[in-house]
Amino acid sequence: MPAVLISQATTDVPNAQSARNAPAGMPPHVQLIQMGVALWQARAVYAAAELGLADLLAKGERSTEDLARETATHAPSLYRLLRALASCGLVTETARNRFASAPLGDALRDGAPGAARATILTIAGSWQWKAWDHFLHALRTGESGVQASFGKSLFDFLAGEPVHSARFNEAMVGMHGAVAPAVVAAFDFSRFKSVVDVGGGKGALLAAILKAHPALRGVLFDLPETGDDAGAYLAAAGLGARCAFQAGDFFQAVPASHDAYLLAHVLHDWNDDQAIAILRKCREAIPAGGRLLIIEAVLPDGDAPHHGKLMDLLMLTITGGAERGADQFANMLTRSGFRLAKVHLTTTHQSVIEAVPV
What we know:
This protein is α/β, with parallel strands linked by helices and 358 residues long. The chain folds into 3 domains: 27-106, Winged helix-like DNA-binding domain superfamily/Winged helix DNA-binding domain (Arc Repressor Mutant, subunit A, Orthogonal Bundle); 116-173, no CATH class; 178-357, Rossmann fold (3-Layer(aba) Sandwich), CATH 3.40.50.150. The chain has helices spanning 28-51, 53-56, 64-71, 75-87, 103-106, 116-123, 126-132, 135-141, 145-150, 154-159, 162-175, 179-186, 204-212, 227-236, 272-285, 307-318, 326-335, and strands spanning 5-6, 62-63, 91-95, 98-101, 194-198, 217-222, 243-247, 260-264, 291-296, 298-299, 324-325, 338-345, 351-357. It has an 8-stranded mixed β-sheet, sandwiched between helices. The chain has a 3-stranded antiparallel β-sheet with strand order 2-4-3. Strand 12 (338-345) and strand 13 form a beta hairpin. The radius of gyration is 22 Å and the shape is globular.
């Protein structure tokens, strides 16, 4: 383990389901079976999202027959789904074969804060289901389940699937919605004049940083097809005058001569060799005295539970990438011309990994 300074920010790390947080006295076989049957609930919530049930119930209670007509489903079977969703708290059965919305289910409406619908459609949707069907293949070969299922990488697959791509992008914003304010609180950006968000999507993290620091200017760097959405998002945030979008490929080159460079939820999409290639392009661009800030989970050693340890299996299956520990980040940074200076914990399971060029 390298010598790494870790800041004293508070943490709120969600625990993986394990014997460590099981109810007292629950037999081991019951714990294991509960882990396995989680897929039932996942697919039930996915069906609710795909059918748009929360939106159909937004204006009041409906009968199962009404909902079946609008969703082109078999009414008796739909009732069974609704009954199960009611037992999970997503809807409430007001009378036999009549259902109304519940606060938990309201969060599944299209466009609701937190992007739960897009996230469920992505992580529990059919294309990811197919990828997970190749999980053992990924364990045996290191090749992602997406590659095995569709013959292409995740991002090449999404480039040809505009509906899935839009849902995926919205899901990423929803899943990481709490990260931006946590990063702003955990790291002092006031020392910088300019910051580049490398692979920053439409710019949610960069916008939060710029709003917190009015003297700071930004560059949002991503693939050309991201430009329209990013420009609209930044303009709506009132940041069009302080933040420019620059199109490019971080495997080829990164905008040069800025004070700070962000890599937020980027490196975990790629294997070590690919991640090092990205880091080396950042090293070519960053001036002496600049800072590279990697925003990702930093996995703890040993048996300590951490959300990222299960997320790591998702990365193996979907992207072919990996979640990493501090020693792995330090090694990749050393091989790329950086030194790991400090890991700043945040109030989420993500950390800010601060690196300096050497």
